[in-house]
Amino acid sequence: MASMGLQVLGIALSVIGWLASILCCALPMWRETAFVGNNIVVAQIIWEGLWMNCVVQSTGQMQCKVYDSMLALPQDLQAARALLVVAIVLAVLGTLLAIAGGKCTTCVEDETAKAKVMILSGITFIVSGVLILIPICWSANAIIRDFYDPLVADSQKRELGSSLYVGWAASALLLLGGGHAVLHLPAARREALLRQVQRGSLAAGQQLRVGPPHPAGWGCPAGSGSGAGALRRGWSEGGRQSRLCSPGLELVL
């Protein structure tokens, strides 16, 4: 039950990161500035995003305009368009894989196949997080560089927009969720297989490969009775393969 809860937590983090990445891509707040023009009564806030720019007047009226040409955008925003769209699609794929490989679903019956699906889902989330992080950091670096450049006019200088902070949060959540799925799964799989052995549900003589070797001296969980439930493990020379835990049953770890 605890293992299932941790798995759901990792999937939830990734899904929240995916939703945040959509918000980051859609909001026109990658670059923003507030300034006062020649008439001190007229104040404007300019927002620049991936798909449009907006001007907010002091009266609260906002006017947005879609970019006429993608090639007119700075290189960092052009790259951000492509990378964020790919990242969002990968996050959708990762979510579907996580649902298929989840413990609470029956889309995949075989436990080994479920483990592989979950690992693939975690890797997909990690790649998605990296694809979001690249354009976010690129744009932030360009904004900061231009802000401190004395050759850039004050009216052309911009500040970090809210979308960049949302993008950093989305990337962090996707990396945490994907890393959680990849790193937590081997331990959870070992526990599940050992419980299966203790219930005697595995055929005699079946070998289980459930993870890397442990140091010598680690023992199997003590079981009652005989057969698969009475587990005792001793390590062979080199620590690579366990001896027979019970008659006809061998655990390879």
Low-confidence stretches at least 5 residues in length (pLDDT < 50)?
A: 36-42, 202-253
The secondary structure category is alpha+beta
- The number of domains is 2
Identify the quaternary structure here: single chain
- Kindly provide the radius of gyration, computed on alpha-carbon positions and rounded to a whole number of angstroms: 27 Å
Helix content: 40-55%
- Got a strand count? 8
CATH topology of the largest domain: Butyryl-CoA Dehydrogenase, subunit A, domain 3
Give a short account of the largest sheet.
Answer: 5 strands, antiparallel
CATH architecture of the largest domain: Up-down Bundle
Order of strands, widest sheet: 4-3-2-1-5
- Percent strand equals 5-15%
The count of helical stretches stands at: 4
The separation of the N and C termini measures 23 Å
CATH level 1 name of the largest domain: Mainly Alpha
Subcellular location: Cell junction, Tight junction; Cell membrane
Transmembrane segments: 79-99, 119-144, 164-185
Family: Belongs to the claudin family.
Pfam families: PMP22_Claudin
